[in-house]
């Protein structure tokens, strides 16, 4: 599944597959690199507590991160170089139809167009693609895997999703993004999976900007750092009925107005405010797209409840 998500992300950005799904080693190798980067980001670093130690890099975090980043950049630079070569070849052709046919109309094309006008540099292109690729692949893969685990654990829920998809798309061979509006139960499954298994259980730290702020009955002085535990907030019994149960119906009943864009503080899988995750629309569309394909092609053979209690 992880390799499929990697290719989903790379196809949306660059119209290419970055892994050979038939070669497990390529999938595992790229996943290990991305996993290492994510772990490094979350790893406690003594330099954060004592900034004067930062130049020493006592834990080797900076050196290890540079090595892993270089591996991903090598793959992405190869993709960008090939696209630039294609564009050069098409521009040298006298046929305008040949030039237009080489345009993919993807995210990379848009970035290269900006680069050609001087608005961004080649380094900017590589950095933006890197950020989108690393941030998008791991988080979407984790969310999709947890959702599928919950659906396989609950065959009745899987049946409801498949019935809704079948009723909405009929005999269509492919499912389009525009079909999403007619799949409210699938949307509820998306929200419930993100509520129970947030990719970022601890949100970005925020600094209190003024005195007189109170959080949970405690006075927070100006300049104090506040860290939000979104995992606990989204399982709070005061906000959610039977919070530890996978029950998508809650988002069609009592929580029908709850959205994941940051306006409902009991549901913050992407954070809120100015630091809300910029990939909200992308994650929403891609997760539902992947689940649609999985649910329509899965036989639902796992009919017994899987023991997921205690897992987070």
Automatic annotation (TrEMBL):
The keyword Acetylation does not apply. Heme binds at residue 277. One of its GO terms (molecular function) is iron ion binding. It comes from the Eukaryota. One of its GO terms (cellular component) is membrane. Belongs to the cytochrome P450 family. This is Uncharacterized protein. It comes from Sorghum bicolor. The lineage of its organism: Eukaryota, Viridiplantae, Streptophyta, Embryophyta, Tracheophyta.
């Amino acid at each position: 599944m992880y390799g499929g998500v990697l290719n989903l992300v790379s196809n949306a950005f660059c119209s290419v597959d970055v892994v050979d799904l038939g070669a497990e080693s390529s999938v595992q190798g790229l996943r290990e690199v991305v996993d290492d980067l994510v772990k490094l980001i979350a790893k406690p670093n003594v330099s954060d507590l004592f900034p004067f130690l930062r130049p020493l890099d006592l834990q080797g975090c900076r050196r290890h991160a540079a090595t892993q980043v270089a591996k991903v950049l090598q793959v992405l630079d190869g993709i960008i170089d090939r696209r630039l070569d294609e564009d050069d070849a098409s521009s040298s052709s006298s046929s305008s139809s040949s030039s237009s046919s080489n345009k993919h109309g993807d995210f990379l094309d848009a970035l290269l167009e900006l680069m050609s006008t001087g608005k961004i540099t080649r380094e900017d292109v590589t950095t933006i693609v890197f950020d989108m690729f690393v941030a998008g692949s791991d988080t979407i893969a984790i969310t999709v895997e947890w959702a599928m685990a919950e659906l396989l654990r609950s065959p009745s829920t899987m049946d409801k999703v498949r019935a809704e998809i079948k009723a909405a798309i009929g005999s269509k061979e492919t499912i389009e993004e525009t079909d999403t509006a007619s799949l409210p139960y699938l949307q509820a499954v998306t929200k419930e999976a993100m509520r129970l298994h947030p990719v970022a259980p601890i949100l970005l730290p925020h600094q209190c900007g003024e005195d007189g702020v109170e959080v949970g009955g405690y006075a927070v002085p100006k300049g104090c750092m506040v860290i939000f535990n979104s995992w606990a907030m989204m399982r709070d019994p005061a906000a959610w009925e039977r919070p530890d149960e996978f029950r998508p119906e809650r988002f069609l009943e009592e929580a029908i107005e709850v959205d994941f864009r940051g306006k409902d503080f009991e549901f913050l899988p992407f954070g809120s405010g100015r630091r809300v995750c910029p990939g909200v629309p992308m994650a929403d569309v891609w997760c539902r797209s992947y689940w649609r394909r999985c649910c329509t092609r899965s036989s639902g053979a796992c009919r017994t409840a899987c023991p997921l209690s205690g897992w987070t």
